[in-house]
Amino acid sequence: MSAQSKISLGAKILVTLLAPAVLYWQDIAIVANEALRSDLATHILAVPPLIAYILYRLRRTFAANASEQPATNTAHPLIVKEALGILLCLLAYFIRWYGSYTFTPLEYHVASLPLFVAGIILIIFNLRTLRILLVPTAFLAFLTPPPLELAQKAGTALAGLSAQVSYALLKMIGTPVTLQILYGSPVIHLTKPQGVTIPFAIDIACSGLYSLIGFIIFALFAVYISRGPMPKKIVVFILGAPLIYVLNILRITLLVLIGYYLGPEQALDTFHLLGGWTLILAGTLILLTVAEKAFNIQIFGKTPETCPHPRHDKDGIYCLSCGKILNFPRVDITQRDAIKLATILVVVASLLYIQVPVFALTQSAAEVFIKKPTGEDATTEILPELEGYTLRFVYRDPAFENISGQDASLIFQYLPKDGFDAPIWVGLEIGPTKSCLHAWEVCLITYPQTHGGYVRATQLDLRNIHLLDNPPLPARYFVFQEYDTDSIQITLYWYTNSIFKTEEGYQKKWSKISVIKYTQNPQQYTVIEDELLPIAKDIANYWKPITNWSWISLTIAKNGPTMITFTAALLTGVLTITLYLETKKKSKAKHIYSQISNPEDRNIIEAIKTFEKEIATETKIIIKYREITGKDIEPERLQNKLMEAEEANIINRKIININDEPYISWKLTF
Predict the structure, then answer these.
(1) Helices (H) and strands (E) in the chain, counts
(2) Measuring CA to CA, how many Å separate 112 from each of 35, 44, 55, 107, 141?
(3) Which pLDDT tens digit goes with each residue over 157-205?
(4) What is the pTM (predicted TM-score) of this model?
(5) How far apart, in whole angstroms, are the C-alpha atoms of residue 621 and residue 605?
(6) Phi-psi sector, 405: left (phi>0), alpha (psi -120 to 50), beta
(7) Of 654, 657, 655, 635, whose CA–CA distance to 646 is shortest?
(8) 267-272 long-range contacts, Cβ below 8 Å, gap at least 24?
(9) Which residues contact 573 (CB under 8 A, 6 or more apart)?
(10) Domain segments of the chain: what residues?
(11) Would you say the C-alpha torsion 30, 33, 35, 40 has a positive or negative sign?
């Protein structure tokens, strides 16, 4: 590829990467923070290098497809693919805007990212390029932690089964163990020869869930880049999930045995040594070995070339014998390309002025100094003084901070000055990640349910409301009643991203604020909602939201479902029309073929038809033509005939990826 072509292609690639990076940088920063600090999201760290490696493997096929100009016999190819690209980008951004208006914005944002990237690829390049890049684009969907509620259910089920199987294995080899369900979690109790009992709790961290999530990503990656028949690759992938689970059971069994013979300290050290990434690495190596030895599937091997490339097409682009692309066509930035690239940059720059935060950004109410709880005097300046109430600090919960990984867990109280009404409680939880600030309904309902045991509360109400209109601040209204008491807890809570003063200086932290009141009257909690809502609004305003939304952002977000539905309908309509036109073109091509009276032309088409599942090169077509007719055809004459058939839309040249190398093959269009 010439220097000019590299510059032109590089400019297109730069804009393709720049647009999503600029518009989604907030989401990327949050995802990176979660991946570095949360066990549930560590698998995200593997996604960028895997995508980078896939792109590296596809670099030549990508360059060939990106250089390919659209065929002249397709109906409005540029208009159709650009319309599809624009609609995909609009759909993605409407989803993103609406997501910022909901209680779970990050999930919406990450879900929209692959759609946006696909749209940009279509606008700048072509449909062939999108097909090549479809898998690495889809891998972007893994850039989000799984929902906590789903993770609790899956992790608990896996932990229970792992404990049962490990217990059975330990009993089989004569290890003195018992199995107990304690607070819903399975616990293997090991009795040492000295009579000391050591408990091994099999919680979600030991369930293998984190390893399983990461391993599935690696297994999909390995299956995609491997070289072999698709049915075999699917079998290899199916074997992956039970393999990593078996390894996790063996890990638990080994930890108990080490605790029996060497002590709990050595068992704990081994647990950290045999963590999730060790299991993923071991499982991946075993899976790759099985794929290569049992199924003859190669991952990194390269098939040696046997073709000396004796003859090229008239432009010297590809080999006429094997079809391999040896040189790429010249890539130029046309006037149309320049307009598209400039328009994308202008639109991205414009969207920055109406960019909306993933979560509500606040300055925090005061300079809250976060440090170790020992000897610290809490301040009530964190919350506003409210008319008719006396604000006081109640306590800090260091035990819960240690369990959840939070920086601070503080409880405050608004006492009514009249002394007759019940107090209003405010919980403030501050942490380095959002995942350490557990949702109320997950802790009280989902967690006990998934731990097979005793659910302590009944959910009476659960819905989302908005505390502030601009910037929008979504909150969750949750009401539950504990079984062993008549007390009903009404909770209104929300998340923010705030600046706090810490021992390391000013840092951005996650916070969850909960406004709580108790009642014993089941009919009264709807009335209490009206009491909590203005207090929650006062607190939200006191924390000084930083960024107001523009009226455009608010309008789109509030009407998000309508905008998404309308755009999806337009996208479906364009796809339907495109498929209809393609079907019509195929019917027309088939009709033209049926009207061919020249035997030579028909025999050439018949020769190409025999290569339905193989590469059809000019040399192979000449050989097959000789087998069909018993006559030879000159290469130059064949090329002219192929060009005529391509102009008539009976055949076309396709770029095929074989072992990460691009090849040209002639194929029928019907």
Answers:
(1) 23, 14
(2) 19, 17, 21, 9, 9
(3) 666 677 788 888 888 888 888 877 655 567 777 787 777 777 776 655 5
(4) 0.74
(5) 9
(6) left
(7) 654
(8) 267/200, 271/206
(9) none
(10) 3-145+334-356+554-575, 149-293, 362-543, 590-668
(11) negative
If one looks up domain 590-668 in CATH, what number appears?
Answer: 1.10.10.10
Q: Which two tokens stand for residue 238?
A: 């199916």
The 3-state DSSP class for residue 490 equals strand
Whole-angstrom Cα distance, residue 246 to residue 524? 51
What 3-state class would DSSP assign to 539? helix
Each residue's pLDDT tens digit, 396-431: 888 788 777 888 888 999 999 887 788 999 998 888
Place of tokens 């009919």: 523
Q: How far is CA 613 from the centre of its chain?
A: 34
501 with 509: CB under 8 angstroms? no
Adjacent-strand bridge partners of 665: 654
Distance separating alpha carbons of residues 539 and 424, to the nearest angstrom: 13
Least confident of 294-303, 361-370, 488-497, 529-538: 361-370
Residues in contact with 220: Cβ distance below 8 Å, sequence separation at least 6, in sequence order: 237
Among residues 37, 205, 149, which one has the least CA distance to residue 439? 149
**Quick one: tokens of 574?**
């364009």
**Using only C-alpha atoms, what is the Rg of the chain?**
31
Parallel, antiparallel, or unpaired: how do β-strands 472-482 and 361-362 relate?
unpaired
Q: By the 8 A CB rule, do 650 and 668 touch?
A: yes
Q: How many CB atoms lie within 10 A of CB 493?
A: 22
How far from 370 is each of 177, 374, 404, 406, 505, CA to CA, in Å? 43, 11, 16, 11, 10
Query: 510: which strand partners?
Result: 431, 497
One-letter identity of residue 394: V
Torsion sign across C-alpha atoms 240, 241, 242, 247: positive
Structure tokens at 129: 């390029």
- The whole-angstrom separation of Cα 22 and Cα 349 is 9
Dist. CA 376–CA 372, nearest whole Å: 7
Q: What angle do CA 146, 149, 155 make, to 5 degrees?
A: 75
E-state strands within 451-487? 457-469, 472-482
What's the CA gap between 94 and 429, in Å, rounded?
31
Q: Give me the DSSP letters along 111-164.
A: HHHHHHHHHHHHHHS-HHHHHHTHHHHHGGGGSSPPPHHHHHHHHHHHHHHHHH
Reported as type and span, the H/E element at residue 410 is: strand 408-416
Which residue, chain included where needed, has tokens 């796809």?
575
Q: How far is CA 168 from the centre of its chain?
A: 37
H or E stretch at 625: helix 618-629
What is the chain's percent helix, strand, coil content, to nearest 5?
Answer: 55, 20, 25
Residue 467 tokens, joined:
């505390």
